[in-house]
Structure formats: structure tokens, C-alpha cells
Amino acid sequence: MGKEILLFPVKVIVTTAYSEFVIDGYELNIVDYLLEPFRFERFLKAVNKVVDSNKKVKKPILEASETLPKRIFIRQNKSHIQLEIDAILFVEASGNYTKIITKTETITIRDKISDILESLPTNDFIKVHKSFAVATQYINKIDGNRIHIQDHIIPIGKLYKANLLKILN
Prior knowledge:
Layout (H helix, E strand, L loop, with lengths): L12 E4 L5 H6 L4 E4 L4 H17 L3 H5 L6 E6 L2 E6 L3 E7 L2 E6 L3 E4 L3 H6 L6 E5 L2 E4 L5 E3 L2 E4 L2 E4 L2 H11 L1
Parallel strand pairs: 1-2
Antiparallel strand pairs: 3-4, 5-6, 5-9, 6-7, 8-9, 10-11, 11-12
């Protein structure tokens, strides 16, 4: 399967209808192996793996492009919305839904807050309550057990307060 051509660290997602090459693919350290036919959600998950792995490995080439906005795709109903991570103020669990509050809009999706937090950078977002995670860059003020972000007030859970104060200090 051409093992000698992958000497440099490239990110590869293999898509094929042939399952007999799965083992060879993982020996070559591919990111993901998609067996056709596959759904768009499965493809998106593979692409997000590549994006996540690029966050862990900093290359000099990436430093020049760090000013570009980082984006994720959020599934809402039957469509996918591209969302700039820097625009997210906070995330709120609301029953079976999760609200993503940005600078300009509120997006409600049918997904768990934990799944959304997995796709967001851990150094930029912190969980402050069982139902809330905030973007640390937008915290205006912490007043007792409440966080003020623009005109929103987010509660701080007892279990999360010590961790929040430790991270912010």
C-alpha cells in the first residue's frame, strides 16, 4: 500500500469501499478510515479529528496563520452551521438542547453540552456550572457566585468555583 511515501507527518483520512486495507492504514498512522458509504456526520467527525490533532502539534507554518479565526461546524436540525469559536460567549445546557450564545445570536441545537465542549479549545472555555461553560476572554466580572458576560449573568456552581478561581489566578 505504498508505505514508503508517508515519511513526513501528514494527516490522512482514508475513504474507500474496501475494508481489507484497514490494518495497513492504521500502521501508517492515518487519522481515520471511512468505509463507504458513510454519512456526512461521520466525515465531519473525521475532519474534526484532524483539526484537533493540529491543535496538539504546533508547527512553525501554523504560527503565521494563527491570526485566522478558528471555526467549528455545529449541526442544527438538518443543516450544519459554521461558527467562529472566538464569537462564542458561553454555552448553556437547556433540557435536551444546548444553547450556544455568540456575540450576535443564540443557536439552539439538540446535543449534549459535553459534546460541544469537546469540540471547543479547553484553554479558552471553562465549565462553571453543570449547565454552563464560558469563554474566559469575555468574562467582565465575577461577583460572588455569578459571572457577568456582556448583559448576561451566569451562575457559578459550588463544585466549579474553586477550579474557576484557580484557573483565573
